[in-house]
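User: I'm putting together notes for a lab meeting next week and I want to include a structural view of one of the chains we've been expressing. I don't have a solved structure, so I'd like a prediction I can at least talk through. The sequence is below, exactly as it appears in our construct file.
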Amino acid sequence: MATIPPAAAPIPARTVRTTLWILLVVYIFNFIDRQIVNILAEPIARDLDLSDTQIGLMTGLAFALFYTALGLPIARYADRATTHRPRLIAVALATWSLMTALCGLAQNYWQLLLARIGVGVGEAGCTPPAHSLISDMVPPEKRSSALAFYSLGISIGSLLGMVIGGVLADWLGWREAFLAVGLPGVALALVVWFVLREPRYEGLLKPTKANVAAEIPLGQAVRSVMGSRAFVLLLVAGSTAAFLAYGKTTWTTIFFQRTHDMTPGEVGFWFGIINGVAGAAGTFLGGWLADRYGATNRRHVLTAPAVGMAIAVPIAFLAYQAPTWPIALALLIIPTLCNSLYYGPVYSAAQGLVPIRSRAIAAATLLFFQNLIGLGLGPLFFGVLSDWLQPSFGADSVRYVLYGAAFLGLVPAFFFWRASLRLNEELDQKD
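Assistant: Thanks for the context. Below is the predicted structure for the 431-residue chain, given as structure tokens.
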């Protein structure tokens, strides 16, 4: 059992801000390295002669299988009172950054696949300990905003990954793009190791029964998380939302290249900006709305995601139907914003529904299903479907796949609504 100082000093606001900003930058690097493969998929496919199914496997399942398999044990390790979470994040960051650089050295499909697996192994050690660290340092009434701020890394990282990857692919080639984005992460890992503070080690946590209790057995921790009906509904909603988000992101970049004859650099710049700016705005807005309206009625933490995803459906369909790429990009702004409202609210609600010593497990459970179903199966399913439709629709097969993806947005909207109805009741029981 870890020794907790008898008195806890208040966590300085400066320390909290520094932690949040550094973790945001880490998460930006996380998604640069995760998402860059999407904008590079088409030139990689041409160079290595890949099918759409192989693209889906490379961009999704190979990464997600190892990412998800390691997520729960790493979260378990992060929940231990003796774990130094910033150093765990630093090691993870160095690992995935080096493996991203190795993608640029791959000479065939299988070498590239193995390198992407390595990226997944490294990235598994980022978000669960980061969520746990943020939840320890930020009071509950500000947690949605804090987690939404951290989640801005998804949109910003995706933007930078697309822009940098696309421009470098046009100028130098896809191999150089991987090397350029991978190596700087190693230097950032040193910053994380030496700058971030662990409140468990420095007397910054109030010594309560919750944070000094003996370690909860893994089975018990998982049962406590999955025993919440609201959490299970969140799990279904978040997983289906991720399935559509990852699938649409990968194949929308390819859609613009095949259907509208854009170069990787053009798609990376224009779609990257639209996806990144609108996604960041939606992520921030979702956290703000959750804190603002959830304070009066806690079910409203999840109202914005439910409504937003329903609004996005018809507009996304029109975007994929648009005759020119500028119109398509303009129409995608609103769906991208609306589909990003859920990040902060989902994880904030989940953290409130579980015991304090199971927070990292809760985050890892959400990530497990979101990434296995979303990242793992989304791009792959859309790729298999595109290959199946190609004999009938040719290069336009991707457009028809995206039509279906747009309408499926009603599924997570329904489950977010159902989860919101359960949220008040379960949080009242915890109170």
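A couple of points you could mention at the meeting. The chain has a mean pLDDT of 82. The longest helix spans residues 13-48.

User: Perfect, that's what I needed.
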